[in-house]
Specification:
By secondary structure, the chain is of the alpha+beta class. The protein is built from 13 helices and 24 strands. It binds 5'-O-(N-(L-cysteinyl)-sulfamoyl)adenosine.
């Protein structure tokens, strides 16, 4: 198994000192500068080790919450045949956003922008009875949409990672309950990532249907204008328990006004929200859920038998989370003028160990190196993810890099630490520096383990 900790001298973490000119918003700038991503071509990004770790952590939280809610993970290919899209009627309508491909036999394929057609095909091949429902399948897979204006780095990419779930129910009443289950699981996903999600009534666009909510994180650089009641910001989704009534949760969370620009009704907003509670702000859409009934099951002929022996088209919904967009959204939500401030749940490493003796001809270098080496080994044994800065770099550069990278803690060890018999532990978020006695340095790792368990 891979060890949790790494040495920077052996790692691939290319940080940039200067702001890249092409990045218009802070998350894009910091993601490039902290060595998380590199652009391939417009809207398409490479994920370097640090960024890839964050992406995987987000993916894992999404996965855990979906599995806990009883949904089943599958993996569908990125490449899809055109026929199903011709059957559903979306092949022409999707327009230039769809990347169309021909194989060597001149067969029309495409790089999937979403999976309603493909999943309906999987369903119709195998499920024939209401007895097997409700069923919710999901996957975490790359999508391609040839956006007119890819921008803001991974926020609006052309190739991006999405978690998409698809639900199948025998009738509208059952499908409604499914919608509530997903709604509650979404609230938990975003809250575990450290975000405050606000579900808002939203338009359905090319996915279709008549019931839809977007999950919005407020941020100045968000692409949409949103309107909501301020009290929604005080709700805490982590209070939601597995066996709570999901319909109740849905009703509680949707009784106060919250709508995206497209669905906004100014009169209703003014009538139902007191002036001093009205929020008009920018928001980032991190998730979007849709109920569209038999929009795809009719043209694609996905039928099931009912208890009375008759047949009906299965009722469906689809539910997306922007996994790669989330990395950008998290940086938008958590940063200062020095760099990123990762929430512990998704930080690429738990702690940085900064060796101040590695560069100059420090007479204490041997002792300091040995101490750091010992801590590095200990972190591996204890399962704490530590990023050891053993680089031959100036101290100023090291401090700047670690503030930029933004791990929750920095443990700083140099001559002063030896002299005082204690290291400095800096909390990246609060800036508070604590002295930790060298003979009790394990307590830092214990603390991190406890903090992570509490998440
Ligand atoms: N099939 C449905 C639900 S699974 C669907 O495709 N919904 S979506 O179009 O709203 O996308 C789901 C989520 O993917 C969005 O909420 C957003 O967070 C993310 N997303 C959409 N387009 C992009 C993009 N161009 N770049 C990055 N993330 C995107």
């Amino acid at each position: 198994m891979q060890k949790p900790s790494v040495k920077m001298s052996e790692y691939f973490l290319p940080t940039l000192k200067e702001d890249p000119a092409e990045a218009a918003i802070i998350s894009h700038r910091y993601m490039l500068r902290a060595g998380l991503i590199r652009q391939s071509v417009a809207g398409i990004y490479h994920w370097l080790p640090l960024g890839f770790k964050v992406l995987k952590k987000i993916e894992q939280i999404v996965r855990e919450e979906q599995d806990n809610a009883g949904f089943h993970e599958i993996l569908m290919p990125t490449i899809q045949p055109a026929e199903m899209w011709q059957q559903s009627g979306r092949y022409d309508g999707y327009g230039k956003e769809m990347l169309r491909i021909k194989d060597r036999n001149d067969r029309d394929l495409l790089y999937g922008p979403t999976n309603e057609e493909v999943i309906t095909d999987i369903f119709r091949q195998s499920v024939t009875s209401y007895k097997e429902l409700p069923l919710i399948l999901y996957h975490i897979q790359w999508k391609f949409r040839d956006e007119i204006r890819p921008r803001f780095g991974v926020m609006r990419g052309r190739e991006f990672l999405m978690k998409d779930a698809y639900s199948f129910d025998k009738d509208d009443a059952s499908a409604e309950q499914t919608y509530y289950r997903i709604f509650a699981s979404y609230l938990r996903i975003f809250a575990r990532l450290g975000l405050k999600p606000i579900p808002m009534r939203a338009e359905t666009g090319p996915i279709g249907g008549d019931k839809s909510h977007e999950f919005i994180v407020l941020a100045e650089t968000g692409e949409s204008t949103v309107y909501c009641h301020q009290d929604l910001l005080d709700y805490n989704p982590l209070d939601i328990k597995a066996d709570d009534d999901k319909q109740q949760i849905f009703e509680d969370w949707t009784k106060l006004y919250a709508a995206t620009e497209d669905m906004h009704e100014a009169d209703k907003f003014n009538q139902t929200v007191p002036k001093d509670k009205q929020i008009e702000a920018r928001g980032i859409e991190v998730g979007h859920i849709f109920y569209f009934g038999d929009k795809y099951s009719i043209p694609l002929k996905a039928e099931i038998s009912l208890p009375d022996g008759t047949a009906t088209h299965v009722k469906m919904g689809s539910y997306g989370v922007g996994v790669s967009r989330m990395v950008g959204a998290l940086v938008e939500a958590f940063h200062d003028d020095k760099g990123i401030i990762w929430p512990q749940a998704v930080a690429p490493f738990d702690i940085a160990l900064i060796n101040l003796a590695a560069h100059d001809n420090n007479p204490d270098a041997d002792k300091i190196n040995a101490l750091c080496e010992d801590l590095f080994n200990k972190s591996n044994e204890m399962g704490v993810e530590l990023l050891y800065d053993d680089r031959d770099e100036r101290v100023g550069r090291k401090f700047a890099d670690h503030d930029l990278i933004g791990l929750p803690y920095q443990l700083i060890i140099g001559t002063k630490a030896l002299k005082n018999n204690s290291a400095e532990l800096k909390n990246r978020k609060t800036g508070v520096v604590e002295a930790i006695p060298l003979d009790n340095i394990n307590s830092v790792f214990d603390r991190i383990i406890q903090e992570k368990q509490a998440l």
